[in-house]
Amino acid sequence: MFILGNLLQATAQILSIVLQLYMWVIIISALLSWVNPDPYNPIVRFLHSITEPVLYRVRQLLPMSGMGIDFSPIIVLLVIVFLQNFIVQSLETLAVRLQ
Fold first, then answer.
1. 69 — pLDDT class (breaks 50, 70, 90)
2. How far apart are CA 45 and CA 37, in angstroms?
3. Within 10 A of 72 (CB to CB), how many other CB atoms are there?
4. What's the CA gap between 31 and 69, in Å, rounded?
5. Chain-centre distance of CA 39, in angstroms?
6. What is the CA radius of gyration of the chain?
7. Lowest mean pLDDT among 30-34, 59-63, 82-86
8. Span 1-15, pLDDT tens digits
9. Of 18, 30, 46, 74, most Cβ neighbours within 10 A?
10. Measured between alpha carbons, how far is residue 70 from residues 21, 59, 74, 81 in Å?
11. How is the chain split into domains, by residue range?
12. Is the model's pLDDT at 94 over the cut of 70?
């Protein structure tokens, strides 16, 4: 059972790193939206391509017409924090019990 515990521990660590990186990508993308960057810049295009599908779905779920402020990055960040505290911690706890 220790092999399964080690597998779950490694999965939890990788998931934590991926969620942390995506959190920073969302933050950078939100900050860039304030300064109106060049849309043909490859970095801006990359950030837009990996964040916009998630942000678009959140915008569809939340009616924010007329508010003038886009709260979708905040909602996505809250979901990421929830996933880190719930799924990653649960995997780590289960991994420790299996070792």
1. confident
2. 10
3. 22
4. 13
5. 22
6. 17
7. 59-63
8. 788 889 999 999 999
9. 30
10. 21, 8, 8, 19
11. 2-98
12. yes
Write out the DSSP string of the chain: -HHHHHHHHHHHHHHHHHHHHHHHHHHHHHHHHHH---TT-HHHHHHHHHHHHHHHHHHHHS--TTT-S--HHHHHHHHHHHHIIIIIHHHHHHHHHH-
> Residue 18 is which amino acid?
V
Name the token pair of 72: 């979708």
CA–CA dist 79, 81 (Å, integer): 5
b/e 27-43 (16+ beta carbons within 10 angstroms → b): eebbebbeeebeeeeee
Banded model confidence at residue 65, pLDDT cuts 50, 70, 90: low
Q: Give the count of beta carbons closer than 10 Å to the beta carbon of residue 49.
A: 9
The identity of residue 24, as a single letter, is W
Task: Supply the pLDDT for residue 76.
Answer: 96
